[in-house]
């Protein structure tokens, strides 16, 4: 018997447990529609929360490409709900020093020099389809998951910071100091590189990333999370209706974070 | 020579004198704290003592890199059951008294808790357990079996039994129902 087979016996998902009675499904669908109606037009939680949880023991699928569409025109200046939600969810604090600050997510201010127009937008790891951070990693710690989420495997990260140099978005940061009181779902430690994980622990449970949830709950509806490969998903429909921009599209990295209204 | 002889003989004889057939651990060994929750571990105690690091190492790669969740072994589930009130943490539950006991004894430094928290998650009663639903065939579903004789090769078991008299009695997991 191989070591793998010994330690990791195959576990079939419990279908009987997960199955929903058709009658109950109809009731639930009706309840969902009712909730949507009651919340509309201000907040529509059902639409952004429609992500399916993956059953236990099943790997992430390459058929899915998770992404976020950010409508910059709806992003209020001075609002940092997404940043606060990320801090709360993943348990990080700003260091207070620009050189070593944490870069999970930040609000970036854009200014048109000709007209003086100013706009802010949330900015984080762009979850590229061709991530340069993965290309340069000497240990394979920086990797892209099958469903398009770019992550750091901190077990194998040696803290060389090549990925930080390679990332054109400056979306990664190095943990310089010892960390305590981490969240159980977001391990962080000194000597490793970290970045936005697109709340991979939440996505796997069928929830949406914390930043998107906070933005949606506040009624801003700036961010839409979903599967870019699914033509029926809200994000794909929205991306099909509006012109979207990929930051530094000239680099050909095909980011999973799309911006509209830029 | 005489001194060396005394050193060689003393631990053995003292151990033999204090050894009790019902003792959960050998008198000279580490005494890890009893689990805070649960009546049985995911594997028999002798298997866990020997292979816990392999289970964790193997499954962590699958979880991080492939996104496979809810399988049998999980560090968060270890912490969930084995974190006990810790004086050094101001009475908060941490897993340090459990893991630290053997690791200090064996002088094996672990770096799990440089990144992972050693405290259990504050789970709301409506939420699922951190490691997801228990898989079919999970030992906690079959409470009648208490012996660990059905797993592990005889060679390893014999060797381990020689070191730990408790195993000669047919060891059960020494955790307590709370």
Can you characterise this structure?
The complex is a heterodimer of chains A (262) and B (178). Chain A has 262 residues and is of the alpha+beta class. Chain A has a single domain, classed as 2-Layer Sandwich (Alpha-Beta Plaits). Chain A has helices spanning 3-7, 15-18, 22-39, 45-48, 81-90, 132-136, 162-166, 200-203, 210-217, 234-241, and strands spanning 66-71, 105-111, 118-124, 142-144, 150-152, 173-174, 193-194, 223-227, 244-245, 257-260. In chain A, the strands form 4 sheets. A 4-stranded mixed sheet of chain A has the order 8-1-10-9. Chain A has a two-stranded antiparallel ribbon with strand order 2-3. A two-stranded antiparallel ribbon of chain A has the order 4-5. The longest helix of chain A has 18 residues, at 22-39. Chain A is globular, with a radius of gyration of 20 Å. Chain A starts with a helix and ends with a strand. Residues 1-18 and 28-48 of chain A have low confidence and may be disordered. By secondary structure, chain B is an all-alpha fold. Chain B has one domain. Chain B has 7 helices and 2 strands, in the order αααββαααα. Chain B has helices at 2-18, 45-66, 75-82, 96-106, 112-115, 154-163, 165-168; strands at residues 84-85, 93-94. In chain B, strands 1-2 form a two-stranded antiparallel ribbon. Chain B is globular and about 40 Å long. The A-B interface holds A 3-4, 7-9, 11-12, 14, 17, 54-60, 143, 145-147, 151, 153-155, 178-179, 181-185, 187-190, 192, 200, 204 and B 51, 54-55, 58-62, 64-73, 76, 79, 114-117, 119-121, 130, 132-133, 135-137.
Per DSSP E runs of 2 or more residues, the count of β-strands of chain A stands at 10
- How many distinct beta strands of chain B? 2
Separate helix tally of chain A: 10
- The rounded distance between the terminal residues' Cα atoms of chain B is 52 Å
Strand content of chain B: under 5%
pLDDT < 50 stretches of chain B: 1-23, 125-178
Number of helices of chain B: 7
Based on secondary structure, the structural category of chain B is mainly alpha
How many distinct folded domains of chain A?
1
Structural class of chain A: alpha+beta
How far the N terminus sits from the C terminus of chain A, by CA atoms, comes to 57 Å
N-to-C order of helices and strands of chain A = HHHHEHEEHEEHEEHHEHEE
Work out the count of structural domains of chain B: 1
Radius of gyration of chain B: 18 Å
What is the CATH architecture annotation of chain A?
2-Layer Sandwich
Give the overall pLDDT of chain B as a whole number: 68
Note the main sheet of chain A: 4 strands, mixed
The rounded Rg of chain A comes to: 20 Å
């Amino acid at each position: 018997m191989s070591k793998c087979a010994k330690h990791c016996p195959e576990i079939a998902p419990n279908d009987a447990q997960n199955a929903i009675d058709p009658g109950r499904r109809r009731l639930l669908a009706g309840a969902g529609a009712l909730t949507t109606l009651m919340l509309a037009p201000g907040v529509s939680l059902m639409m952004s929360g429609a992500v399916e949880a993956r059953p236990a023991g099943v790997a992430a699928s390459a058929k899915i490409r998770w992404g976020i569409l950010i409508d910059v025109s709806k992003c209020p200046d001075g609002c940092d709900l997404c940043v606060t939600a990320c801090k709360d969810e993943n348990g990080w604090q700003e260091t207070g020093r620009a050189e070593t600050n944490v870069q999970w997510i930040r609000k970036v201010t854009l200014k048109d020099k000709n007209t003086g127009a100013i706009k802010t937008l949330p900015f984080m790891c762009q979850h590229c389809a061709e991530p340069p951070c993965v290309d340069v990693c000497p240990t394979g710690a920086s990797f892209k998951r099958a469903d398009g989420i770019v992550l750091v495997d901190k077990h194998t990260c040696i803290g060389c910071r090549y990925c930080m140099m390679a990332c054109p978005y400056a979306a990664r940061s190095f943990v310089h100091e010892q960390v305590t009181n981490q969240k159980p779902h977001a391990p962080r430690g000194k000597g490793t590189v970290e970045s936005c994980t697109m709340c991979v622990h939440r996505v796997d449970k069928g929830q949406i990333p914390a930043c998107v949830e906070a933005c949606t709950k506040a009624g801003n509806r700036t961010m839409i999370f979903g599967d870019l490969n699914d033509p029926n998903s809200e994000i794909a429909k929205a991306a099909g209706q509006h012109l979207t921009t990929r930051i530094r599209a000239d680099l050909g990295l095909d980011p999973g974070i799309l911006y509209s209204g830029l | 020579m005489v001194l060396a002889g005394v050193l060689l003989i003393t631990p053995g004889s003292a151990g033999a004198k204090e050894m009790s057939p019902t003792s959960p651990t050998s008198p000279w060994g580490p005494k890890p704290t009893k689990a805070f929750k649960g009546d049985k571990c995911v594997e028999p105690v002798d298997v866990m003592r020997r292979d816990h690091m392999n289970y964790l190492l193997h499954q962590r790669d699958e979880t991080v890199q492939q996104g496979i969740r809810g399988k049998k072994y999980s560090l968060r589930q270890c912490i969930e059951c084995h974190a006990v009130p810790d004086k050094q943490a101001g009475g908060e539950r941490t897993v340090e008294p459990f893991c630290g006991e053997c690791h200090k004894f064996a002088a094996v430094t672990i770096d799990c808790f440089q990144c992972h928290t050693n405290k259990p998650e504050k789970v709301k009663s409506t939420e699922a357990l951190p490691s997801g639903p228990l898989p079919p065939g999970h030992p906690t579903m079959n409470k009648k079996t208490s012996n660990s004789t059905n797993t592990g090769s005889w060679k390893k078991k014999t060797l381990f039994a020689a070191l730990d008299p408790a195993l000669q009695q047919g060891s059960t997991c020494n955790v307590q129902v709370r």
